[in-house]
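ARCHIVE CARD
Drawer: 12
Card no.: 0347
Subject: one protein chain, sequence and derived structure
Cross-reference: see card 0346
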Amino acid sequence: MNSEGRRIPPVYCSLFTLHAFLSIDFLHFILRETAMRRLLPLTLALVPLLGSSAWAQTAVVYRISISGVVENGLAPYVARSLREAQSAKAVAAYLDIDTPGGRVDAAERISDDVRAAGIPVYAFVNPRAYSAGALIAMSSNGIYMRPGAVIGAATPVDGQGTKAPEKMVSAMRAEFRAVAEERGLDPKLAEAMVDENVEIPGVVAKGQLLTLSTGEAVRLGFAKGQVANEAALLDAIGHPNAQVVATSTNWAEGIVRFLTNPLVSPLLLSLGILGLVFEIKTGAFGLGGLLSLVSLGLFFGSSLILGLAGWEEVLLLGLGLIALAVEAFVIPGFGVAGIVGILAIVSSMVLAMMGGYPTSGDVAQALAVLGASLFITAAVIYAWLRHLPNSGRFSGLLLKGAGDRAAGFTTAPSRPELVGRDGTALTDLRPSGTARIGEERIDVITEGEYVSQGSRVQVVRSDGYRHVVKLVASRQSSDISRQPPDQ
């Protein structure tokens, strides 16, 4: 009803209700649009900040430790760590260096991997990078040093600490110069770290090796800056809030480094040599051959992984084994093939322990390991032959007692009348076989030489069932005079 008391038709009530509802909804729409327009600039301003904060939280930097002596077991670890960092989309990696130096070939492998990395790699000298460590640090995208750190003194030396020959010094000087040129460092400074004959006025006098402190390295532009700790380093490389992932050696790298230890290598070589000795004595492939293959496989496989051995050493070992197999199965006895096989195997063992740039110390260590393995092998064989007859478990493998002729024990009647007589080989003698002596077929054996079927032979010794023959002047078998049978 209206103000005058008249009744309003239902259709008009519906229209009024719809109008009021639409008016309220329209008002909400206006208010919401106004709020959104006011919040939009603020939202757009916060988006970059939120995005950068999220990126900073997900950025990852890998820490790769290079501490202690640089040896061949370190190179696979560094290569694997760099691959992991690249696979994990890390923004950078840094080498935490504290080393007095080490092997040149190992340092060169690490240097190659660092320069070929697909991400930026920085060096943090913390606090020493001598010799091989200096080459590794120079290979990075930038050197940072903590207060009181040093870098340099990289002249190559042998195992006794004396300066290496000029040939090796020249190679290292060129290596340092090339790496410095690639990384934008002063090549003269790099050369002066290797060769004391390089003089740089105001920096190092002739006759002195260059070693730079943190302040000197920063002042000369060799280092990018001085940082006190890891946080300062991350800030210097532009990733202050990055998450640091520290890598360590895995079980496989630990096993390889264990197998190449100078105390373990002689044991592997000893087992390999013992297996070869037993295999040659038995003349058939068995437990000795399997033991030899496993031991030599572990020795050469670990050296191959570490870069000490190449395929040349493996091929040399294979040729030696083939020569010994020919000596054992094809040409019985011991001759040229056996000597060549032993020399090839020994040479491959020594070469597999020296690496790419062997010093006199490396050669001495390789020969010492080989000598120790031969000593262990001889000691085991001696102890075995000496104590095996008295062993309660294995004494049955050897014949303890012996019957002599005076006690009435004979293996076969003596045939001295055969000595000096000629005959014909009825089979190939390798070295044993059958020959016809007079009218008899007799089992014979040579002194190691191979005699083909139909050859003329002569009995040189007869002892029971064992008749030893030798090859005599070649004639047609039909011309051999048949001697009358013994009466």
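Annotation on reverse: The chain has four domains: 1-39, 56-249, 258-387, 413-479. Residues 258-387 form one domain.
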